[in-house]
Structure formats: structure tokens, C-alpha cells
Amino acid sequence: MATVKEGLYYSESHEYVRIEGEYGYIGITDYAQHELGNVVYVDMPEVDDEVEAGSEFGAVESVKAASDLMSPVSGVVVEVNEALDDQPELLNQDPWENWIIKVELSDKTELDNLMDAEAYKEMIENA
User: What is the mean pLDDT of the chain?
Assistant: First the structure.
């Protein structure tokens, strides 16, 4: 059973965002990494790129499939998790600690469009 963390915001496409002040750390959920299987590559945007809520910002490739990454929020990329360049499997080991990008949020009201942990749990249980 996939774990779901309290206090995060979740998208229907299985990304999460953890808010810290004006920043959001975006990654894939435990459910997503289970579905993908062994992650072999993560395609990430560049620092200073803009991401838009509901738009693609990269991709995760596994031995089974490739999956587009959809941003749950809009903002400017201020950091990418460079550890994933050499060790993409970190997403399988701990998707909660191994976020993919850090963005400076441009509109915090977009968080209202995302699910909380309870709603996300319900969605994956009914999948």
C-alpha cells in the first residue's frame, strides 16, 4: 500500500507539493513511483524556467514506462534536485525526501485546486 503524507498538496496526476514559505517542493508520490517501477531517468527543467499549474515540466522514465511530470503550481524554478541526475532511483527509495524541483510560487491560491492527503488517499484507493 502506498504511503500518503499529511500536510502536502496533491494533484490528480500524482505529483505533490510541499510548501515552505514562498517556495514549493514538487515531487512524485509514493503511489506514482510504485506504478512506474524502477526509475532510470528524470528529465528536469532548468533553474529560472517558469512552470505553470497543469502544464508539463519534465518526465520520469522507468524500465516499464515514461511519464510526463505535470506541475501542480505555477512559479519559477529556483532549484533542481541534481542528485537525481546520477541517482534517479532515489525517487523509488524515498519520493517524499527526494523532491524534483523547488519553485518560487507565483500564486498561492492555486493550492486550493489541489487535494489534501485524505482526498488523495481516497482517489488512489478507488483507482
Answer: 97
